[in-house]
Amino acid sequence: MRSFSAWAVGFALALMVAGIAILPLTGAAFTRTLSTRYSLAEEAGLPPERMLEVAEQVRAFVVESEGDTLPVTVDGRPGFDAAATSHLIDVRVVLSRARLFTGVLTLLVTGWIVAQFRRKRLDVIIAALRAGAILTVVLIVLAGTTAVSDFDSFFTAFHGLFFASGTWTFEYDSLLIQTFPEPFWVTSGVAWALTMALGAAVLAWLAKLLKTSQRGTL
C-alpha cells in the first residue's frame, strides 16, 4: 500500500513538474529571445523590431489575457483574422486550466508531504520523491522519442488533445505562423524538456537530502 501511495504521489509530482516547467516558457523574455531568432519578419514584410512587438502582443493576449481581440491588419498587411484569434483564445483557456490544475496539484502534494512529515514517515516521502524523479524522466524520454522520430505527427497529436480538428491549422503566409514558425515550437519543446529534467534532478536531490537526514537521526 505504501508503494502504491508513493508511486501515485510520484506521478502527481511528475505532472506538477511538467506544469511548473511551462511557466518560464510563457514569459516575455523567453518569447522575445526565440522570436528574435526564429520569427519570419522578412517573409511577413515587417521590420524585425515590429515583429517582436507583434510576438509580445500575442503572448500578452494569451498568457495575461490582455484584450479580447488582436489587430486584423498590422502595418497594412493581414494580421489576425477571426480563426487565428479564436485559436489563441482556446490556447488561453488551455493555459489557464493548466495553471489551475498545477496549482491544485501542488497544494495537494504539499499537504500530503506535510501529513507524512507529521507522522514521521520520511521513507514514504523519499520513495515518492524518487518515483516523481523517475516518472518525470520517463515522460521526457517518451515525449522526446516520439517528437524526434516524427515531429509532425507528435505536433498533430499534441494539438488534438486540446483543440478541435481544423481550428489550429493555418496557411504558411499567415502572420500567426510567421510570428511563431515551427523552429520556435521545437526549441520551446526542448526548453520544456530541459526544465522538466531540472525538476527531476531537484526531486532526486530532495530525496537524497531526506535520506541523509533520516540516517542522521537513527
E-strand count: 2
> How helix-rich are the residues, as a percent range?
over 70%
Instruction: Tell me the fraction of residues in β-strands, as a range.
Output: under 5%
Q: From the alpha-carbon coordinates, what is the Rg to the nearest angstrom?
A: 21 Å
The overall number of domains is 1
Shape: elongated
Give the strand order of the largest sheet, numbering strands 1, 2, ... along the chain.
1-2
> Which assembly state applies to the chains in this document?
single chain
Please state the average pLDDT score. 93
> End-to-end span in angstroms?
24 Å
Q: Which blocks of ≥5 consecutive residues have pLDDT under 50?
A: none
Which class do the helix and strand fractions yield? mainly alpha
Can you describe what's shown?
With 218 residues, the protein is mainly alpha-helical. The protein has one domain (2-212). 78% of the residues lie in helices and 2% in strands. The protein is built from 9 helices and 2 strands. A two-stranded antiparallel sheet has the order 1-2. The longest helix is centred in the middle third of the chain and has 37 residues, at 82-118. The radius of gyration is 21 Å and the shape is elongated. The model has no long low-confidence stretch (mean pLDDT 93).
